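This section describes the prediction task in plain terms. A model, or a person checking by hand, is given the sequence of a single protein chain and must write out its three-dimensional structure as a string of tokens. No templates, partner chains or ligands are provided. The sample shown here is typical of the held-out split.
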Amino acid sequence: MSFAAPLYLVLVAAMFLVLPIMIGVYVYRDSTRHGMNATLWTLIAVLAPAAIGLIIYLVVRSDSNAYECPNCKAPVLDEYAACPKCGTPLKAKCARCGNALSSGCQNCANCGEPIPPEAKIPTIPKRKDNGLGKILIAVILIPVLIMAMLIFGLTSFRSSHPTSVGSVDGMRIEDFAGNKTVAEWLKNCDDSGTGIYVLEYQYPKDNSNNLNRSSYIVYRTGLTKDVSVAAVGYQNFFKEALRIEYTDAETPGVTDYHIYQVDYSTTAKVQLDVLVDGKKADYKLTRSTEPLMFMESIPWRNEAANLYKLRLDYVGDNSGVSRLVQATGLEFAGDYTLELKTSEKPYGLKLNYSRVNDKFEIIDFSQYSTELLGLIKNLDYVEITDGKSTHRLTAAEASKALGHDVKEFGTDPSKLEDYLKSLYEKYTND
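The expected answer:
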């Protein structure tokens, strides 16, 4: 996108310039050939919008120099009796007075002598204007191409806004017992019957990065079948929105998706759509003046269970490492590539960020590094860099900070849960 968009704009701009240039060149040459003011008519043809100047020129241009000698192809006037260049006769002569006869005449215009039918009066051929046909084709095709490119560009290369989407599924009503606002809202939803209910909290706008951030709790009551749910940022030329999409679960007995949490950040205006089986669904929106205990305070039980399922024995498992890194939340920090150091000890995992959503120096990477060190059995260190600054944490350093071996995260899920709980309590207290 970063390269394609400027190139695309250059191509569109070039298309806008091609047609006036073609028209200008044609009009200048043609008006010169017809003995007209070439500079004036070229300016009119080029500057008048929508090829109006070209149309006016074609209507009023002189036809005097539109003929050519049949022998040497030199331009000639209609009244010439012979070509001034090669001398080729262009008109027959009256047998009585010798006056040049024009094509189509029955009598000599000079003496009135009847012109015998057998008299051969050559017709001066008109010069072929091949350039006009090309110009007319260009006048039709180039605007069509420009419109097609604009439509394609507006839909495919639309300037997108930076977005970040984070979500937590499988929440229980009791997980919100400590948040009076959410707990009362959940009770009111149950009392209101079957439907989709959304509780929204909009954070004060962060002027430092121009981000609009909103937190949502989506509560779907009355479910009679297993469903899966996902949150995605949606953009096209007409709209940008956060989409909550419910679909039939692939397997029965999946995690409870009655309550779903979503955190969404964007530089655009925040909008929310809810879809059920691909169709937009109605929902009842309630706005909260209090934070919804989201993201920074992820309920630890669900998060610990999801992370523990993804634990690995070897850092060389590229796909497994990629899934685990995503699960920790590092993908929401920006765009990165993975680099695995597995040829010799110490074994390492390196994340190279090409773009970060916030200032690298103020992002606390220690939580993510600690989780990765604990859940990848043979991982010795984690290194995270944006090319200018670097965060590095070893398994020994993480163990010292925890007060126990960090590798216990991969053998005892309660240790991982306790760690996430401590983060939860820290963030909620802050």
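For orientation: The radius of gyration is 39 Å.
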